[in-house]
Amino acid sequence: MASVTYEHVYKRWGDVVAVNDLTLEVADKEFMVLVGPSGCGKSTSLRLLAGLEEITEGIIKIGDRVVNDVPPKDRDIAMVFQSYALYPHMSVYDNMAFGLKLRKVPKAEIDKKVKEAAELLGIAQLLDRKPKALSGGQRQRVALGRAIVRNPKVFLLDEPLSNLDAKLRVETRANISKLHKRLGTTFIYVTHDQVEAMTMADRIAVLKDGILQQVDSPQNLYNYPANVFVAGFIGSPSMNFFDVTLVEESDTGKLYVDGGSFRLEVPPDKAETLRKYKGRELIFGIRPEDIHAADFTPPGFFQVPMKATVDVTELMGNEIFVYGLTGGKQFIARVDPRTSARVGEEIELRVNMDNMHLFDPETEVALV
Amino acid sequence: MTNKPPPIAEVAHPEESIGLVGRVLAFLLRVLIAVAIPALAMAVFILGFRFLRESDAPKFVIVLVSIVWGVGGVGLLYLAANTMVEALPDRWTALLQPYVFVGPAVAILVWYLLIPTFRTIYISLFDRSSENFVGLQNYIDIFTQRDLLITFRNNLMWIVFGATFAVIFGLLIAVLADRSKFERTAKALIFLPMAISFVGAGIIWNFIYEVKDISVPQIGLLNAIVVALGGEPRAWTATVQPWNNLFLIVIVIWLQTGFAMVLFSAALKGIPDDLLEAARVDGASEIQIFFRIMIPYIMGTIITVATTIVIFTLKIFDIVIVMTGGQFGTEVIATQFYRQYFTNRNFGLGSAFAVILVLAVLPVMAYNLRRLAEEEGF
Questions:
Q1: What percentage of chain A's residues is helix, strand, coil (to nearest 5)?
Q2: Are both B265 and B355 inside the same structural domain?
Q3: In which domain, by residue range, is B79 found?
Q4: What residues in A contact B282, CB-CB < 8 Å?
Q5: Are the beta carbons of B281 and A72 separated by less than 8 Å?
Q6: pTM for the whole structure
Q7: Rounded to 5 degrees, what are φ and ψ at A24?
């Protein structure tokens, strides 16, 4: 069991900077998810920790031990690969036992550990098979089993669910979460899928272009994204963004977000801190679930009316995704399924301005 | 002509839809196609040859005409046969069409490979002039006479040392070159001998092993080095039997290492990086990865390469003939066959050697083919 620390870590290939000044602390027993679009440096960060890539600059520690120059085999980590990387010429049993055999663990103990892990993962009946004879989900579990038997300090998982079909992915997601609680080991999990990140992580680190954008719990990341990228990346469908101006009504002193075709009042509790930005052009962000149909708006928040033309509707069963148009710009609202939204007609909406987001258009950093 | 494509099920198993008479008829037609096309092609060639032989046209024109005649004639022949088969009912097209193209090749192979093989087996049961039937006497002679037995010992040495070292060196170089900056250059240099014929290689190495009297300068590379280091020049390929064979075997290793290396190199590059990385994380050292992951992963290629080289060494002939002519206890099966059949005019004994060579190669060949089939090579 151990914590993991990245201190100002860089990885460069010639002019390409894959990981740019990464500083990150992963607590002991924590489930940390590194998430970001492809090419954001998340896998490279993981591979640096595994020792599969050399660190260009900076320090990586496992526990209190600096591991920069420690070969992978001595780092006491286990890794699950996207392709599973099972040894094709070995049986499931030998795949799982390989690491222990190399460490000269006594045979009886290997046998015990492999069987325990196989039992835990429900693959006990497959131990004699070769990987070729297994389904994708079974292979994935063997790959997990191979990591578990080693009883490592840190578990590294590199997109372990990407090769599974959607249903199996949801199932396995829950199983990995359970496994983490049961093993009580530090997990570092890389994915490009924000849903995986949200559902499994204790904390999420969002990366983009090799730069760490924000690290926080899933809930905080969702409610208080630090910048436009994180706001857009976390949550599905994505947050809506509008170019707006913050205006003050001279007689009442109320603040409004003015997008040209709409004008939304800023709640009084936020108005005080935002008043200093009045007259400036900003990016206004609002999540689809914070836009309600006027007839089916639940009470209990600062409602502001808004009108839009319905462009497309998608009935999901429990809700409708309304693609609305305002001032020629498309946005998404998740509204009550009873809403009558006909394409081409105007629809009355209520915006939950308690959950509004404002970003600086130059730095893209969050203002509230 | 019917142009609508036949139903797929019918094409997949056309035999099932016709009766016994149909099957017999199909068989006869297939044989007919297989024999008629090459026979007609041969007739075309012979006619063309006769015509051109009596012509006074300039050489250039003759060459041009013969190319057009030969290639065009055979092409037309196939086209005509194919059109005819396609004009048949769909079911019969499916039954016969493959044989238009595969049949002639098989027929020609039977004619110049299978028939001579059986003829050789037949001759090997007769005496030296093929007049009196002697049963297995020739084989008994081969396996009881000491000077003939040497050939088997030598062939065994060729197989064991030649194949083993070519595989080991090929593998070693493939792995090391893979990690070198000079990969391309190194591989090109090692692959180069592949382009040299066995005879050419024999002549090159004859120069290396060349021996002169101690009183004159050594023009052989090996003896020049030995003398320069204060040693005595030696006739490498003639003395210290049977180990002089090794000096010949070195040549085949030199020739075949490149072949092995290229195939191993390709196979090694086919190992997914993930697999090696997983092993590294699992705690394997580079040497353990080599023996426990890489070697098992490319075992199929290793076996294919090894068996191919085994077949080469079983059939080895040119190198021995060029280097020693089979003297000094370096005779192998193929050279014995040649010596008995053509030099000694002992057709029975020579044929028996040829048959033994075929019997020795066959299992290796069969194994190789089965492996290829498993890997869906065909």
A1: 30, 35, 35
A2: yes
A3: 7-87
A4: 73, 78, 98-99, 102, 146, 150
A5: yes
A6: 0.75
A7: -155, 135
